[in-house]
Design brief:
The protein is built from 13 helices and 8 strands. By secondary structure, it is an alpha/beta fold. It has an 8-stranded parallel β-barrel, surrounded by 7 helices. The structure holds dihydroflavine-adenine dinucleotide (FDA). The site of dihydroflavine-adenine dinucleotide has 23 residues, from strand 4, strand 7 and helix 12. It is an enzyme of class 1 (oxidoreductase). It catalyses: L-proline + a quinone = (S)-1-pyrroline-5-carboxylate + a quinol + H(+).
């Protein structure tokens, strides 16, 4: 029951101001968002890659309100990519981007987001890596898929995310399960109405398995974005049944969640990519992590009263 309430709060400016100003917030936020600047995040990139993990980097931010903020988002990614060039990690460190941070919801937003994200994709390709477009709420997805298709003309390795809770996703998965495509499948983290999305966990899990089967049996590169132990075991089985080798799919999990499982899968020889978020505009990302697990909220509230 708590999840939808927290997700509603994640879109409230009043709650944003309240929570961002709370003195204890930072230590809880750090678990999921371990830095604010490129300088903070580079030691973490070095540490995780030295442990055999791969990364996808997210500069936190979304729902911006001016074109200048969209340009600043583009520049933040370009700064990171510039620093990654020196580390020579190639595709071990890719980028995840939210198009709303690149201006998608502003006037002329589709073109603006495309214009802002393209230089990031170009810069990533120049250092031997790639970009994945995150999936946001369902109203943004037609534009996201169109931008994905446009970027893939020149950069076919550009990835995208699909969300198992949406009714549309089985059809999207069939379209995307083609040679050369990289698709991350997640359960879905936004508050979606019953007209477009499954509401029950067991329905979402069942849809996840159906869609994963489509991706595994297809010709693209599936990226399994989940911490759910059952789905991870099923993914291994489906990959085996589809005759995929260990480097023909990968697991992805979020920084700060089930860290020992990241290492276990990597030690088994799997490609394991950690979605690592950093930056100052962490509110929306942080609230979605609270909504996913009520125990996180209890911990957060306890640390507020114990200060
Ligand atoms: P589930 O929620 O059932 O969790 C399984 C287990 O994992 C839990 O029992 C718990 O142990 C642990 N766990 C999960 N979430 C936790 C948390 N917040 N704190 C502590 N423990 C937790 N969504 C989206 O809509 N668009 C996107 O682009 C992305 N991108 C993305 C990238 C990657 C790499 C991942 C892993 C996830 C996303 N998501 C996302 C989020 C996704 O939709 C979903 O909300 C979370 O992954 C939680 O779902 P699980 O599959 O982990 O299962």
């Amino acid at each position: 029951m708590l999840g939808p309430v927290i997700l509603a709060a994640s879109r409230s400016d009043r709650m944003r101001r309240l929570i961002s100003a709370a003195p204890v917030t930072k230590q809880v936020v750090d678990r999921f968002i371990p830095g604010e600047t490129v300088r903070d995040i580079v030691p973490i990139i070095k540490d995780l890659t030295a442990k055999g993990l791969e990364l996808t980097m997210d500069v936190v931010g979304e729902d911006i309100t001016t074109p200048e903020q969209a340009t600043a988002a583009r520049d933040a990614y370009l700064e990171l990519i510039d620093r990654l060039r020196d580390l020579e990690l190639g595709e071990k460190v890719e980028m995840s981007v939210k198009l709303s941070m690149f201006g998608q919801a502003l006037e002329g937003g589709h073109e603006l987001a495309l214009a802002n994200v393209r230089p990031v994709v170009v810069a990533a390709a120049a250092i031997g890596t790639t970009v994945t477009l995150d999936a946001e709420d369902h109203t943004t997805l037609d534009s996201m898929f169109a931008i994905h298709e446009e970027l893939r003309r020149d950069f076919p390795q550009t990835g995208c995310v699909i969300q198992a809770y949406l009714f549309r996703t089985e059809a999207d998965a069939r379209r995307l399960a083609a040679a050369g495509s990289r698709v991350r499948l997640v359960k879905g983290a936004y508050k979606e109405p019953a007209e477009v999305a499954f509401q029950q966990k067991h329905e979402i899990d069942k849809a996840y398995v159906r869609i994963l089967k489509t991706l595994m049996e297809g010709e693209g590169y599936p990226m399994i974005g989940s911490h759910d132990p059952r789905l991870i075991a099923i993914a291994q089985e489906l990959a085996h049944q589809a005759g995929r080798k260990l480097d023909e799919y990968e697991f992805q999990m979020l920084y700060g969640i089930r860290g020992e499982e990241h290492l276990r899968l990597a030690a088994e020889g799997h490609r394991m990519r950690v979605y690592t978020a950093y930056g100052t505009d962490w509110y929306g990302y942080f609230m979605r992590r609270l909504a996913e697990k009520p125990a996180n909220l209890r911990f957060f509230l306890r640390s507020m009263v114990s200060k």
